[in-house]
Specification:
Structural class: mainly alpha
Number of helices: 2
Shape: elongated
Helix content: over 70%
Radius of gyration: 27 Å
């Protein structure tokens, strides 16, 4: 148990540079705005892809409904 505590304490003493975080770089308002536009475009593209998949599923179900009603 004490060996585990000693190992855990050693991790806390490491410098922040080796923690894997990137240094903070200040962005201009234009860069922030363009980044938000890019993120929104990606979200819209993903939603369109999901919508097209759901429309395909709906078409399949409607065809099955027509077959069932025809009998």
């Amino acid at each position: 148990m004490t060996a585990q505590k000693q190992e855990g304490q050693g991790l806390k003493q490491q410098p922040a540079a080796t923690s894997g975080r990137k240094p903070w770089i200040k962005k201009s308002p234009v860069e922030v705005f363009l980044e938000q536009i890019g993120k929104q475009e990606q979200r819209v593209a993903e939603m369109e892809k999901d919508l097209n998949r759901e429309k395909g599923e709906l078409q399949k179900l409607l065809k099955a409904k027509l077959v069932l009603e025809g009998k």
